[in-house]
Specification:
The complex is a heterodimer of chains A (391) and B (144). Chain A is of the alpha/beta class. Helices cover 30% and strands 22% of the residues of chain A. In chain A, strands 1-9-4-2-3 form a 5-stranded mixed sheet, sandwiched between helices. In chain A, strand 7 and strand 8 form a beta hairpin. Chain B has 144 residues and is mainly β. Chain B has 2 domains: 44 residues, no CATH class; 79 residues. The N terminus of chain B is likely disordered. The chains are: A alpha/beta (391), B mainly beta (144). Chains A and B meet through strand 6, helix 4 and strand 7 of A and strand 1, strand 4, strand 5 and strand 6 of B. The complex binds zinc ion.
Chain lengths: 391, 144
């Protein structure tokens, strides 16, 4: 008989702008909190799954060793950005289901505000390279773009956004509706870094970063870590919390991961992932009680809200402006405030929120009777989505 | 003109680091020519220098094009992302569809067009400028 897996614990650190500690310290704290939440001991852990972008985190071997574990039967350090933030969870679920391990910890730890920032070029994002002879020398694909001052993710997505503006008449009013909505949600989340409500006027008056993006269109770079614990459904029965199950996960990666090569920039990876995930699970967007949609930039949320079928293509802005993405609407999107207002823990904090909501542990921001949560991770040419359910 | 004019003491913008596949691109650029990879077997244009044509497996090589095209998308950069651009703020980076291969998008800084007047579909043409801080010539697109 096939083994089933369940998410049985969640843990996190404080999310801040300056943790003052190493990524190892962050990863340890989140992991220990998740294990305590689950009611499991460090010695129960025999699997780990994590991800990092350009050595910005601590790998699973080092974390396991630091925690006193002499070995792991399942271990996965995925190289990637937010596009793998759901996949690392699915990998752990599958590892447990396959019998590769009994208790797997999934974590993401980073000092992306005080340490290596995504919006800088201290460590090149585009292609290989780095400081050589006092200047930046960029090879690979980046050699054709970095000399033009085009080298950070926000710029890729700005290009995509402009195509959506052109095709559907979308505007900053639509992007702003998303920023304002998520911030309103964050007001009820004590863990969110940015909790002060903003108005549409605040949004329009905020400074440009890369037009059409204002500062409020960009995720809140942060320091912190979060972790999830996965074990067998059988073992979950004896643990502290209601188990959470993964009903399905679909990932997609396109065009060699080069976002400039994508054919139709008004659609993202979600255009391919959505239909397959609905098909796989037999569920529909309207079945979802809430959705934690990856929102590295407002446009990512807008395009994927459409692609996953929560509204018609081109209607993403209206969907938010009409209040369909909040309490009392179609589906509550990012009740924690998302990456835009809670923190940019590279998307794994979406899975944390999904579990908290499905357990009924989300306090003031609890979505009533939440049974099904859609979780997405990634943007542009690559990403994935999964559906989590109350067990 | 809003060309980068970096004095010796100013930080230079990022420099290309050519490899065996890309070297011909920079050799053409040094002569003021825009060249794009094209499969010699099936004629497919490619956005990047490839070892193998992704349509037929043939061998692409560089072919000189007119440098004419139109704007496919663009952004206006207000926030410095690397040294060497401070004097240019805000600057525009565009995706340009070249006339000979409109399915491709070339990333290029625009020069000579007021940022607020840039629009998708606008015709543009490449010219080559000395890239500060090294020996490279770089195509920048401006009014056609
Ligand atoms: Zn060919």
């Amino acid at each position: 008989m096939k083994r089933e897996a369940a998410i049985v614990g969640i843990g996190r650190t404080t999310y801040s702008r300056n943790s003052g500690v190493s990524t190892l310290a962050l990863a340890r704290e989140a992991t220990l909190n998740a294990l305590e939440d689950a009611g499991l001991a460090v010695s129960d852990v025999d699997g780990m799954s994590s991800f990092a972008a350009g050595n910005d985190s601590v790998g699973v071997h080092e974390l396991a060793y630091s925690l006193g574990l002499d070995g792991l039967y399942y271990f996965s350090d995925t190289v990637g950005g937010g596009n793998v933030a759901a996949k690392v969870v699915a990998d752990a679920v599958w590892a447990v289901e396959a019998g590769a391990c009994e208790v797997a910890v999934v974590y993401r730890a980073l000092n992306s505000r005080s340490g290596k920032r995504f919006g800088t070029y201290a460590d090149p994002v585009a292609g290989r390279g780095g400081p050589v002879g006092g200047g930046l020398h960029v090879g690979g694909e980046g050699q054709f773009t970095a000399p033009h001052g085009y080298m950070v993710p926000g710029q890729w997505f700005a290009m995509w956004t402009q195509r959506h503006f052109q095709t559907y008449g979308t505007s900053n009013e639509d992007l702003g509706a998303i920023a304002v909505q998520y911030r309103a949600h964050a007001a009820n989340n004590p863990h969110a870094i940015a909790r002060a409500p903003i108005t549409m006027e605040d949004y329009h008056n905020s400074r440009w970063i890369m037009q059409p993006f204002h500062i409020y269109d960009c995720a809140l770079e942060a320091d912190g870590a979060c972790a999830l614990v996965v074990t067998t459904a059988e073992r979950a029965r004896d643990l502290k919390h209601r188990p959470i199950k993964m009903l399905g996960h679909i990932a997609y990666t396109g065009k060699a991961g080069n976002n400039d090569l994508w054919d139709d920039m008004t659609c993202m990876y979600s255009h391919f992932v959505g239909p397959r995930l609905w098909d796989l699970t037999g569920l529909k967007p309207k079945d979802m009680d809430l959705a934690c949609l990856y929102d590295c930039f407002t446009y990512t949320a807008l395009a994927t809200t459409e692609d996953f079928g929560f509204c018609e293509k081109g209607e993403g802005g209206r969907f938010y402006r009409d209040g369909r993405a909040t309490y009392g609407g179609d589906v509550v999107v990012n009740p924690h405030g998302g990456l835009l207002s809670e923190a940019y823990i590279h998307g794994l904090n979406h899975s944390f929120e999904a579990v908290a909501q499905l357990r009924g542990d989300a306090d003031k921001r609890q979505v009533k009777d939440a049974e099904l949560c859609f979780v997405s991770a990634g943007a542009a040419a690559y990403g994935s989505a999964m559906i989590l359910a109350r067990g | 003109m809003t060309e980068i004019r970096a004095p010796m003491s100013a930080p230079a913008p990022p420099q290309p680091l050519p490899d065996a596949l890309s070297q011909p691109y920079w050799d053409h650029a040094a002569k003021g020519e825009l060249a794009l990879p094209r499969c010699q077997a099936c004629g497919t244009w490619h956005a990047l220098p490839l070892e193998f044509c992704r349509k037929c497996g043939g061998k692409p090589s560089f072919q000189v094009v007119s440098g004419e095209g139109e704007i496919y998308s663009f952004l206006i950069e207000h926030h410095p992302v690397a040294p060497g651009f401070d004097g240019l703020m805000p600057y525009v980076v565009a995706m340009v569809s070249p006339r000979e291969a409109p399915e491709l998008r070339l990333i290029s800084r625009l020069d000579g067009i007021v940022p607020d007047e840039v629009a998708i579909g606008m015709p543009v043409r490449a010219r080559f400028v000395d890239h500060p801080g090294g020996d490279f010539k770089l195509p920048v697109f401006g009014p056609a």
